[in-house]
Structure formats: structure tokens, C-alpha cells
């Protein structure tokens, strides 16, 4: 995932009358220093982000990602991002992505300590090869997220529905999964419900019904899950949001972790118990996710 | 808190035979770009830090801060920092601090994405004037941290005892406190115990006994609390670590939030209920905390 493009954005220069935002952008060398040590993103993980999948130069589901960025900004008391400015930055970054798969990241930081405004930038990088995860699948373990299902409602300062830059716990959970010989993790609540993976959403199949944990604050509402549910509904399947008890993991007819860059990774085992894999459906799902989507 | 000094450190060049680490340091302009957008500190708050108080050019309790940095590194699976290298960097930074109070920050990031080694740096800045908090005191509110007291034992991947760069929740809790008309917050567990403030430790007075929540994983072990307990014990007081129920907040004879830069801030009210203030003891405590400590 070597970065090949980076664009600094001036979020303060985004007045609504503007039709061309290029003057608010500064292309920078992604390998050269571009941020000061006073950056609050780096001092306190104080900011928000999005990772957008790019296929053959087409950035996927930009609207859904910009909506989630706006939602994260609101939860974190950051100024609302100007959607037109960010969309133009994504277009610029996508134009730098050649054929194949890439990833565009959007970052909105609270800025420099005691500085006047947030800082913001966009990067583009070639995506890792995710073929193996998509076809051979992944082994996962369940890990306690420490919260009850209702924590986000009771304590919005826990920022549980926001995609913040404070991902140290998510990364630690992935390291713990690797230590246990697995590829990824599924977070559970202390009261026995299933949430999401550290960087992906969970979808279970139960007959002809696809189920995902209801995103009422405790998890990120995944853009990939959302897009896939639309597609599955159009294909005639049932799709439902539910409070999913951890016990449902072992009775599922199939299960996937889905996210913007890795796309749909079929789960082959949860806590060392095998899960049935539907290779054909998985291939169809990934073909859909790789097609241009808006 | 304008930064006036920044030093990049090469943690990979810290072999133990070295007696002079100056070749592993590069002074940089703190107002100029020094970090790349690939930095994992900035992308995911993936790293650890320390904030050290400096009084008239003397960095306080450097040994205790370096021990905690090492502990955080272990919890986060980061390479152990070389204490001699970091101590030399602190000495360099302290030499750049004039009379009065300053703050030196140590940052150890997991590095650049897919890069070979962590990145690290040290900054120095003039401290904010904390006289008002130290003399007039602070109003605090209690905020649910979402966890039970035993969460860190059950789930070490929550990194609860580590001082990570993922401080978005701590910052959100401070904003929530300000929204409620308070200056600071005290985190509580869902099972009714008291933890710490978002950037400080809590000390309660009960007669001639000083009490602080037991740091078994759920909170940071504060260097200021530790130093103050040594001092209070030497003065003949009892000092104890306990599981402190939230109900104890309202029966305390006095209460303080203590931390390396603001030092001891007497609490004047908790959730709008007045707390007795011992101005004389507070002044003596802050005089001790401002004296050179190692
Ligand atoms: C915590 C978390 N949940 C879910 C997702 C999946 O979201 P999306 O499908 O929009 O990539 C992500 C993406 O990184 C995530 O970080
Ligand atoms: C969460 C937390 N607890 C406690 C403290 C107090 O630690 P110290 O006294 O070492 O500054 C800090 C310091 O910033 C902190 O961030």
C-alpha cells in the first residue's frame, strides 16, 4: 500500500459560492514531510477519516463515505466538511489511480494545537492484493469490546459511532487475533451481542436472509454492507438489521466480513469452529463489489 | 503552549554500546512540516506518549515517565524504548526551556505504514498558565467510561493502562464537561467505581488518609500521584490505593486532580455538589510539585 499521491486541503477556504476548489488544494510528495509535530491527529488521534475503495480509477460509493465523514464530524464536534470540496479532492486523487485496485483516504484532523482551523488531506495508494482473503476466506476470533450494547446511547463521548483517528484499540485487537492464529477479529459486547470487526462489518446468512448487527451507535455503519444489502434486496433476498447474539455466529449458514478495500471475505472459522462457506455466492458478491458503484 | 523545540529521534539507531546519542537526533523547526502523511500516529493514533512538566529548565520525574513509556510500549507491542537515548533527548529539550514552566512531550509512533521502524520525536513548549486552576480550583462532572472495573484484566487489547496517542475519547469527555459548565471530568465505571480524569489522576482526602483509585490496569498510573504519595507519606500521612466507589466522591474531605503540567487542581464541586477545599494544603502540595523532583 505505498502511497503515491497526497493532497493537502484547506477546509477553511471552502465557502459555498465556490464552484472550483482547486485553489484550496496543494499536492504534496507523500514521502516527504507534510505535517507538523503540533498536529492533533498525531498527538491525540484527534480527527476522523474514511477509506474509499477504487477500482480501475473509479472511487466507489463516494456519497456514502462523505455522509459518514459528516456524521463522524458531528459526533466529534468538528466543523462540517464541505461535501463538494471533498468530492472534488476524491476526483483528483482517483485520477492518479491507474488500473487495478487502490485506496483513497480522507483525513480531517482537529488541526494544529491552538491553531485556528482543522487540517485535512487526501491520499491515494495501491491496494494490497486481497484475492486470498476473498477466495480462500479468513479465520476469526471473537474479542470482548468491553462495552454493553447500550453504552453508546448512555455515553456519546465514547464516540462509538464515529470513524475517529483513535484506532489503537482496533489495531491491538488485530494483533491479538494474529497471536491466536486468526486473520481477523469480531468484537462482542459484555452482554453477549456481536458488533463488528476492527476494520469491517459482519454479515451473516440465515437461509435466504442476510443479517447484520443493527448500527444504533455502537458500530460504524459500513458503506460496503449498505451497498451489498441494496444489491441483495434487488436480487430478492431478505436483509435485516438485528441485535445479533454471539450464539448466532455458530448457527449461521455463512458469514462474511465486508469493508471498502478488502471487500467480502468469507469467514471459514470462528474461534476454531468451522463456518460453512458459499464460494459461489461469495464470488458473485465480490464481482458486484468490484463493479462501479455510486 | 506554542512549541518552541522539536527533535526527531531515530529509535532504530539506539544500540546499547553507544554513550552519546546526539547522532540519532535531528533538530527540526516545530512550525515546519516534519512528518509524512503515512505516519501511523496520524492515521490511527497508533503510538504512545508522555508529557513531562519542566520547571525552570528542570524536567520533573523523568525516570517515572520513562518507566511508564516502557510499560505503554509493552502493552502496545512496540519495541522497548532505549531509556538512555530518551533521557538524553529530554536533557536536550530541557536545555531549550527557559525560566518558568514548560512541557516536554515524548512521542513513539508505530512508524510509517509498512515502514521498517517506529518513528519518534520530542517537543518542548511553554506551559499554559495554570495558576487559576491551582488556586481557585476546578468544577468537575462524572462521566461513564463505559467499562466495568475488571475490563482491562479480561481484555488487554483495550489498552486501558497504556498512554496511547488514541485520545479522541479523552478529548470528547473534556468537551462534554465544558458543555455541562465544568472544567474537567472524572471517569466512572459502569459498576460504580471511580477511575481518573481524561488527563489527570484523582486523589481524595479522608481525614489524614489520602486515597487514589488502585491502578490495576483500568487507569494510567500517574507520575504526579506517585510522587505526591511519597511526599505525603514522608510528611506522616497515610496513603492508600483502593477500589473507590463513586459514592466516596461526596464524602471526601477534599479532592484534587493531579497531573504533570497542571499539577494539583483542587476540586470545588462534583456534579454541582460542593466539595470542601483545603487551600493551605493545596498550596503546600503545589510548592512541593514545583520543586525539583527526580
Ligand atoms: C470499525 C469499522 N467497522 C466497519 C468498517 C467497514 O466500513 P466500510 O464498509 O465503509 O469500509 C470499517 C472500515 O474501515 C471500520 O473501521
Ligand atoms: C488518562 C490519564 N491519567 C492520568 C494522568 C496523570 O499522569 P501524570 O501525573 O503522569 O501526568 C494523565 C496524564 O496526562 C492521563 O492522560
TrEMBL record, chains A, B:
<dbReference type="GO" id="GO:0046394">
    <property type="term" value="P:carboxylic acid biosynthetic process"/>
</dbReference>
<dbReference type="InterPro" id="IPR001544">
    <property type="entry name" value="Aminotrans_IV"/>
</dbReference>
<comment type="similarity">
    <text>Belongs to the class-IV pyridoxal-phosphate-dependent aminotransferase family.</text>
</comment>
<dbReference type="InterPro" id="IPR043131">
    <property type="entry name" value="BCAT-like_N"/>
</dbReference>
<keyword id="KW-0456">Lyase</keyword>
<dbReference type="InterPro" id="IPR050571">
    <property type="entry name" value="Class-IV_PLP-Dep_Aminotrnsfr"/>
</dbReference>
<protein>
    <submittedName>
        <fullName>4-amino-4-deoxychorismate lyase</fullName>
    </submittedName>
</protein>
<dbReference type="GO" id="GO:0016829">
    <property type="term" value="F:lyase activity"/>
</dbReference>
<dbReference type="Pfam" id="PF01063">
    <property type="entry name" value="Aminotran_4"/>
</dbReference>
<dbReference type="GO" id="GO:0005829">
    <property type="term" value="C:cytosol"/>
</dbReference>
<dbReference type="InterPro" id="IPR043132">
    <property type="entry name" value="BCAT-like_C"/>
</dbReference>
<dbReference type="InterPro" id="IPR036038">
    <property type="entry name" value="Aminotransferase-like"/>
</dbReference>
Amino acid at each position: 500500500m505505498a502511497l503515491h499521491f497526497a493532497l493537502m486541503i484547506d477546509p477553511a477556504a471552502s465557502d459555498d459560492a465556490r464552484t472550483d476548489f482547486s485553489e484550496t488544494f496543494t499536492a504534496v510528495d507523500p514521502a516527504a514531510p507534510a505535517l507538523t509535530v503540533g498536529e492533533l491527529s498525531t498527538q491525540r488521534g484527534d480527527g476522523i477519516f474514511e477509506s474509499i475503495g477504487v477500482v480501475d480509477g473509479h472511487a466507489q460509493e463516494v456519497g456514502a463515505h462523505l455522509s459518514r465523514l459528516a456524521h463522524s464530524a458531528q459526533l466529534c464536534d468538528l466543523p462540517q466538511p464541505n461535501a463538494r470540496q471533498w468530492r472534488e479532492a476524491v476526483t483528483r486523487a482517483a485520477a492518479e489511480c491507474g488500473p487495478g485496485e487502490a485506496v483513497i483516504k480522507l483525513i480531517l484532523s482537529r488541526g494544529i494545537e491552538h491553531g485556528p482551523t482543522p487540517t485535512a488531506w487526501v491520499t491515494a495508494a495501491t491496494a494490497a492484493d486481497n484475492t486470498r482473503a476473498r477466495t480462500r476466506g479468513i479465520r476469526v476470533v471473537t474479542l470482548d469490546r468491553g462495552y454493553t450494547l447500550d453504552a453508546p446511547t448512555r455515553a456519546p463521548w465514547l464516540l462509538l459511532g464515529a470513524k475517529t483517528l483513535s484506532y489503537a484499540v482496533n489495531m491491538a485487537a488485530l494483533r491479538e487475533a494474529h497471536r491466536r492464529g486468526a486473520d481477523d477479529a469480531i468484537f462482542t459486547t459484555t452482554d453477549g451481542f456481536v458488533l463488528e470487526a476492527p476494520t469491517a462489518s459482519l454479515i451473516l446468512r440465515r437461509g435466504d436472509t442476510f443479517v447484520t448487527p443493527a448500527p444504533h451507535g455502537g458500530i460504524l455503519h459500513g458503506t460496503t454492507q449498505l451497498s451489498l444489502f441494496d444489491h441483495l434486496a434487488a436480487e430478492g433476498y431478505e436483509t435485516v438489521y438485528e441485535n445479533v447474539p454471539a450464539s448466532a455466529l455458530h448457527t449461521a449458514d455463512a458469514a462474511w466480513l465486508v469493508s471498502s478495500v478488502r471487500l467480502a471475505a468469507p469467514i471459514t472459522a470462528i474461534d476454531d469452529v468451522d463456518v460453512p462457506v458459499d464460494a459461489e455466492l461469495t464470488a458473485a458478491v465480490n464481482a458486484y463489489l468490484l463493479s462501479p458503484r455510486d
